[in-house]
Amino acid sequence: MALGASGQPATKPDAWIKSLTSIALFLLGCFVFSSTRLFHPKARGILAMSFFLQSCCIIIAAALVQGKFVPQPIGIMVVEGPINYKELLPLGFLAFQSGGQIVSSRLLGFNEVPTTVLTSVYCDLASDPELLKKNNIKRNRRVAAVISILLGGIVGGWISRSAAGIATNFWIAAAIKMSIAISWSVWKPASPTTLP
Questions:
Q1: DSSP secondary structure letter of residue 6
Q2: Is the dihedral of CA 30, 36, 38, 41 positive or negative?
Q3: Backbone phi, then psi, for 189, in 5-degree steps?
Q4: pTM of the model
């Protein structure tokens, strides 16, 4: 978005609109999903509803791409000219649900697990004073997160290049989120004696 203020990149001078859309809807998602703190944010029903809504956002984005409402990228493309404003719609739904995703990780107390970017986990991993300690659960979660995101990115890239297309990645993500929502709704509640 900052580069867009100076008309860069030259081949796509209005690309900043995509960045602004992403940032604005991500912030809106954080605000909306964090409002669960007004209730009981760790209640199974609240968590199930949160992941259900996140999944619905991805389903809408997948349907827009698969239904060819927005052009589906094929391979490596150099896009020039004005922005296709239709692309903002699935982008907005994905950014909004990403806000919910990071809020959920924070509410559940897993701050060491990245849900949207890897730079902070790289920093936390490299600067961990107990990096080489035998039992370091936060380090283990960070390493598992990095590996999982790397593998997910590789698989997603190959799926995008295949005949299945990028919409398939969205459907897979939606299915994972929906299964998490269902899991929260059937999770056995903790007994009163084990509650803190």
A1: G
A2: negative
A3: -65, 150
A4: 0.76
